[in-house]
Specification:
Length: about 675
Amino acid sequence: MKNYIATLVVVMGSCVTAIADVNPEILVLDNGMKFILLPRSEEPNSIAVGWVAKVGSVNERPGITGMSHFFEHLMFKGTNTIGTNNAEKDAEFTNTERVLRNQMLDIIWDEQYALFKLGEIDDPWDAKNDTPELSSLRKELQATMKSHRDVIVKDEFSSVYQGAGATGMNAFTSEDVTFYINQIPANKFELWCWMESDRLQNSVFREFFSERDVVHEERRMRTESTPTGVFQEQFNSMFWQASPYSWPVIGWPSDLNSYTLEEANRYFDVYYQPGNLIGVVVGDFQLQPIKKLIGEYFGQLEEGDAPPPPVPTIEPQQRAPQLMVVELDAQSQIEIRYHGVPFRHRDSYPLEVMASVLNGKTGRLYKAVVEGAEIANNARFTVDTKKYAGAVSFSATVKGDAKPEQLESAWYEQVDLLQNDSVSEYELEKVKNNIVADQFRQLQSNFFLMIQLGYGEAIGGWEAINESKDLLLAVTADDIKRVANKYLTKNNSSVALYNRSKNATPIDAQFEEELAAFSEEQQMMIKQALSELKAIPEEELLQTAAQMKVQAQQVPAEFKAVFDFLLKKLQERIDSLSNDLGSEEPAKTPVVEEVVEQNFVETNQKLELTAQQLAEATEFLASFQDKSLGELIQVEAALTMAATRVQGSDQVVLEYILARLTVLIAELENEN
């Protein structure tokens, strides 16, 4: 035991290297499908799996915008063997629906569009404007789809996975990729191979026409029913002059209505061929058995006839500033967006460091407009590096009676400082410490590492995971000044001023101001999560809060703000219940930090350390007293990995140290 500390330091050192460098094995099948395989033992008996189709809205064209996102829906509808109780009848129904819908489209595109152009009807797609023939076809299609449901086994694809213990089955579509993800027990990998290869080889696009209505509803909820949704679409289309990034991922409504099954099949054959797909497997597995199963199942997929076409359009240089002014039923806000650079461009790294200098409660923006001038509830600078292009933007929500124009002026003052004054060594050092801490956090979870590997490979190379830290740490003050002068220019800017309407409906001002700090998608996530948290019984609130506080250490950086906000709201509910007890001496409700401390005490009692073990652990912990939050997170991450390689009595000491570190990190985060 007396060499324990030295041994642990060596183990930690090797773990830090393991965290910092990701070294997967790359497998390319004969049909061109690539797999990224990364065995890890940190999460026993679990594997994070997924596959990426290198296709997103950037690969579409006018007339089929939103098709990539639509496929995300269709791919969960099953195959010839999953999702139906009668494959033959299922195919007959689909074909009948296809014929009827094509007949309807011929009438709409010809007769209804002609009437629309003449001003005789206001919407060629609205059923109230149907001709008798079109109305008859619509009724026949609806009746056929209703009968079709008799041979459909609803949600069977997801039910099979859930029955096998899978969690996290989902998919998402961006401008550049469509990603299908899952988390499965290690002994269910062959099931995953069969399920995924089956839907790649035998998808039938079941409920093709009814699913279009589901996407319309999703568009209504996410875009048309939100205060800024349609305006953000307009702003995005204004910003991108030529690039296919100009249209929304979910697609334009008239394009959603115009999809044909024939067009969908062509799209699938081009973009879902093996050579355009990347599989990712991260977790507890042995390479050789996994590689054999991958070859057996995914090797059956037929190679495509030709590679997907390139995306040749390059966004031209913006030569004049652009402005959009809006009145809306929400808190006033602003966005100033500039054209930036694509993924892995050499200037992306100083732009990222610049963002870290500006963001956070210790960043320049918070100090200037939130804490200082008190004209904003929140402010942030975002770097968005896509596959073919990129953008950077300043956005903020006003506080009280302040105006978006005040935030605009305040931003230009910050730009002037960035362009003319060097960032201090202190600021750079602080930012770089946070960068290292974020790197550790992002690599802790198999699930999120799987997503990073797949997404990175699809838009430019998974190797960026290993390279980015050193490139970010190498950024100098001169680099930041250079990119500020290069990209944050007036002629490269597009400004959106969102002014709260005088007739806007009353809102919970405090909550809305807090919520405005998040993107539209994050706001939806928060509202859904809050509704679930409200359903938690009162007697389980403290335990839930404590669990969330511990889980917060593992949340990837991109989700941490959302997670922290939810934790804050949960604590507010706990405090509120405590205040409502009504007794003369109400029982004190512990705050989350106290619960974490209590968990540590309980852990300490269970571990039963000897006096010598406690002394050695205390000596080891003493070396961390002056460490920053970021450094403590790194140590915790390394020790967590070390725990898998420490056995016997040493493991008891390590568990004690980890428990104590959790408390220290919670205390520092509370201070920040």
